[in-house]
Amino acid sequence: MKRAAPGVLLVLLLAGLHVLAAKRVAGAAGFPLDDAWIHARLARNLAEGGGLAFNAGEPAAVSSAPLWTLLVSLAAAAGVPFPWASFLAGALLAGAIPVLAFSLVGRATGDRPAAWLCGVLIAMTHPLPWSSVSGMETPLAAALVVAMLLAALAEKFGTSLLLAGAAGLARPELVLLPAFVLADALLRERPWRRGRAVRMGLAALLAGIAPFALNRMLTGAWLFSSFAAKVGRHGVLAALLEGRVDLVPSIAATNLPLYAVALLKALGRDNAALLLLAPIGLWRLAAGQRSSHLPWMVCILLPCFMAVLAPFGGPEFHEQRYIGPIVAVTVLAGCVALGALPPPLRKPAARLPLLALVVALSVPGAWMGARRYALEVKNINDMQVAVGRWLAERPGGPGTVATNDIGAIGFVTRAPILDLTGLATPDVIPYLRRPPPAGSRNRGWNGASESGLVDFLRERRPDYVAVFPAWYPSRFFHQSLGAEVFRVTLEDNLICGDRTMIVYRPVWSGQEAGPGSVSGRRGGRTIAGARRRGAGRGAGRSGARRPGACGPAGTQGRSRCRRGHDPPPRRNASAALPAPRDAASTHRPTAAVRSSLPPIRAAARNPPGHSKH
Fold first, then answer.
1. pLDDT at 564
2. Residue 94 neighbours by CB distance under 10 Å
3. What residues pair up with 486 in beta bridges, in sequence order?
4. DSSP secondary-structure letter at 297?
5. Which residues have C-beta within 8 Å of that of residue 133, sequence separation ≥ 6?
6. Per-residue model confidence (pLDDT) at position 223
7. For residue 412, how many other CB atoms are within 10 A of its CB?
8. Are the beta carbons of 502 and 518 closer than 8 angstroms?
9. Predicted TM-score of the model (pTM)
10. Sequential DSSP letters for 99-111
11. Is the peptide bond before 32 cis (omega within 30 degrees of 0)?
12. Do the Cβ atoms of 178 and 207 come closer than 8 Å?
């Protein structure tokens, strides 16, 4: 433990530097992804006794990482405010990874310097420093995978299987791990004993279905909502659900090389030396005296299944959030290879420069990750948090809000939310999947039907609708939403789904327009680069709406990373028309769990070096 201390201290140091960088650029701490605010609202509801539900009384499988949500809720129940509750859980789990890595490499190689180096490298190699204060589940998933490998090397089948099952509650694609643990045990236990093999198979089956059973028990659904809302539209699983078995070979032949190239590029940017050394380490871990096939299965088989079954976002999506465990195992394998250097390279004169070079290669990725982290926090604070605070300040409360980015808006307002992507509101999915008329196509995000979405909104009659205009480009869709009452445009967007978010105040049939509604005109007054004043009045006019160059058809995820694809920068604009009084709404925020939220503020200048990873 003492020898692993440098890695743990480095984790805490880098986590603190990320938060300080965000406060310097954004003016306040926050999350770099809107999805992290989804976990925060779920954890707060759980801590307050509302169960694992985004909207009170509406069970939905919103969290695809319920174990992470549970851990964050423990910090929230102890009185730690957000986002610090998530930071605390993430930093503690990230700090456990160097300890586990040190033990694993030491057990596999017997080389203490290589084990010490692994503890340091795994703490500083992107995306693990970024993820420690991201509010997301990546540190938990990576820690569970490394712990599973350590148990497998110690030939503890039951422990490794238990950890594999828990990993499926931290990342949905990790439900494959119990099958990998079973395959690893069978490969090492030849000749097989039939009775033991049957028992191990049943145990692996139970561990594999445990995440689905728990999800069914908590929410009433077998599958996470993210599958139906987003992931289930891609890959072999989507083809099978649509009965198109004929597409499976072509999907596999196309997706595998594309995903493999993107994965290798991402790992090479993180640390090219470790990527080159990893095959040697994987071979040694599989063929050594204390061997396990799990490392190469995680590094090779897992991304293959991800590419073919349900690819979503790609390896670099959300700062490599989906491949965090794969990055961790790649670092482990590279360090195992360093512990197996030939005798001439083990001499200090040759080894020290080599180790210094390997460490130096991780520095640029971590540095650029920290700079992007700060800008991503600023983007979310300036857009989703600002929209949420504006809605929360409406007289009488915001009522029901429909939006395609539910995290910060839902957390700040505490209002009932209609999720227009279907994650928290599965009822909308049939409307989104409505087939287009013959000879046309659905132009909404992820192939959504805009006419179907308008019908859904007319049935549910939300008080406000907040959307990215580029996600639903048809003019009739925006005209159906009524008056534009608030707009935020980012000059330096990196992580939000579009550089502009618009809030509409609909007037549904049979409902009178409120005093703040503006009929016959779309587009409110704006203040370029200004702070909110008073009740939200502004001066000046905004330019025409200019959605990003990457249209919604190419979008992969709720908040996609748009590096280098935005239109030329414009000054930050957030604007409001006087909001209608909503006397019918009696919603009032409560404060059972404290939160520290950033103020609405003007955007700082775009820091250099953010546009490409």
1. 35
2. 28
3. 503, 576
4. I
5. 15, 18, 19, 86, 87, 90, 91, 373
6. 73
7. 24
8. no
9. 0.83
10. HHHHHHHHHHH--
11. no
12. yes
Q: Which amino acid is at 253?
A: A
Using an 8 Å Cβ cutoff, are 514 and 495 in contact? Answer: no
SS (H, E, C) 526-553: CCECCCCCCCCCCCCECCCCCCCCCCHH
Using DSSP, state whether 310 is helix, strand or coil: coil
**Is residue 559 scored above 80 in pLDDT?**
no
Distance, in Å, from the CA atom of 96 to the CA atom of 146, rounded to the nearest integer, reads 10
* Greatest C-alpha distance within the chain: 84
**At residue 519, does pLDDT exceed 60?**
no
- What 3-state class would DSSP assign to 316? coil
Q: Give Cβ neighbours of residue 384 (< 8 Å, ≥ 6 apart).
A: 34, 37, 405, 407, 408, 409, 496, 501
CB contact burial 369-394 (16+ within 10 A = b; e otherwise): bbbbbbbbbbbbbbbbbbbbbbbbbb
- Neighbour tally for 220: CB within 10 Å: 10
Whether residue 54 has pLDDT greater than 70: yes
Phi, psi (rounded to 5 degrees) for 270: -65, -50
pLDDT of residue 213: 87
Cβ–Cβ < 8 Å for 83, 596: yes
Amino acid at 396: G
Residue 374 to residue 605: CA distance in whole angstroms: 12
Q: How far is CA 131 from CA 89, 95, 355, in A?
A: 11, 12, 25
Q: What token pair was written down for 447?
A: 């192939």
Query: What contacts 179, CB < 8 A, 6 or more positions away?
Result: 204, 208
The β-bridge partners of 258 are: none
Neighbours of 195 (CB within 10 A): 8
The model's pLDDT over 494-507, given as tens digits with 9 standing for 90+, comes to 999 999 999 999 99
Residue 516, amino acid: G
Beta bridge partners of 58: 55
The secondary structure of 547-573 as a DSSP string is --SS-GGG--SSS---TT-SPSP---E
Sequence-separated contacts (24+) of 534-539 with Cβ below 8 Å: 535/576, 535/578, 535/579, 536/390, 536/393, 536/486, 536/575, 536/576, 536/577, 536/578, 536/579, 537/576, 537/578, 538/575, 538/576
- For the chain, the straight-line distance linking the first and the last C-alpha, in angstroms and rounded, comes to 34
Please answer whether residues 64 and 224 qualify as being in contact, where contact means their C-beta atoms are separated by less than 8 angstroms.
Answer: yes
Task: Check if the beta carbon of residue 75 is closer than 8 Å to that of residue 85.
Answer: yes
Cα separation, 32 vs 408, in Å, equals 11
